[in-house]
Amino acid sequence: MGKNILAEKIQEEFEIFMEKIAEFKGQPVDTKLLINVSISNIICSIIVGKRFDHDDPSFVKLLQNLSYTFQRSPGFALTPFVTFAKRLPFDLFGLKTWMDHVLSIRSNFSVPHIKEAKENLAKGEALTSYITSYLEIMRQENELNSSSLLNDENLVATIRGLFAAGTETVSTTIYWCILLCLHHPEIQDKVYKEISEQVGHGRRVTMNDRPNLRYLDAVVRETQRYTSVAPLLPRKVLESFKMNGYNIPKDTIIFLNMHSSLHDAKVWGDPENFRPERFLDAKGNLINHEELVPFGLGKRSCPGEALAKMELFIFMSSLFQCFRFEPEDPSGELPPIEKRFSLALSPKNYKVRFVDRSSM
């Protein structure tokens, strides 16, 4: 599945998203669920090779379980106790209920679609999804190497990772960006001006336009930095090592504090301010700050990084091109920029009016 195919899937889902937004005719709406549905459908189209109708029972169930696992997460501090809590006769901190929803994604989505993909491959059908591609490579690897780590369990884990990396974090970043633009209308005006000059209005923005939309790219990067949606990344130590005089034993779970890098005053100067210009030089060219690490670093970085970047660019560029974001009550207070912590840092729910640019 090349980048062009991924971009087409994202663009297709955005068109449906825009139709849903247009139905509100500029009336205030909370888009949190709608953004989640659209981004989840992109992941589904990649993983199983098809998208689902918004009212499809299995898709609705998947979304409910995904929403619960993210919004009701026990938090990193309690995650190590999940296995222990399962043995208790009572539901400690709601860990059992939370784990039931996690396992439901496996039993009601991942396992059935893996089974279906195996049956399709046995019939000689073409590779049409991530699952079928994985299974085919797994077969080839196992024929050559019996100790290959490609297996059904790791496939299930990878599907879970793709949903985690490509659904909640991306949709939350989009949700944040819209809110921040409500507080900084001059920023969305600058993005719209750039799109008008570089792309126009006769077609949608594509990934080929990205090199020419540098200010938009800077806005997306600054949103990732400012919000630090995934502030902590857990990692398991495979071999004991020493660091700064401390012994870190094998099998220790450590948490990488990504927030500290994204909000280091020594690097960013004024990290508490939302300022996309920090990613542009005097000539308007993008500055690649190595401290911008929303996806982590190295071979253990987020497996969905490339996909997430494409989703963010296509969705945000198309939204800026088609709509102006305006507050629910133009004469009232703006929704607050306050962070809620679960598995991701998300803003409080808010409503926004999407004003069609063509009618302005």
TrEMBL record:
Transmembrane segments: none
Membrane topology designation: Peripheral membrane protein
GO annotation, cellular component aspect: endoplasmic reticulum membrane
Cofactor: heme
GO molecular-function terms, A-Z: heme binding; iron ion binding; oxidoreductase activity, acting on paired donors, with incorporation or reduction of molecular oxygen, reduced flavin or flavoprotein as one donor, and incorporation of one atom of oxygen
GO process annotations (BP): organic acid metabolic process; xenobiotic metabolic process
Positions with a binding annotation for heme: 302
Key words, A-Z: Endoplasmic reticulum, Heme, Iron, Membrane, Metal-binding, Microsome, Monooxygenase, Oxidoreductase
Name by which UniProt lists this protein: Cytochrome p450 2j5
Cellular compartment(s): Endoplasmic reticulum membrane; Microsome membrane
Organism the protein comes from: Plakobranchus ocellatus
Cross-referenced SUPFAM superfamilies: Cytochrome P450
Family: Belongs to the cytochrome P450 family.
Stored PROSITE patterns: CYTOCHROME_P450
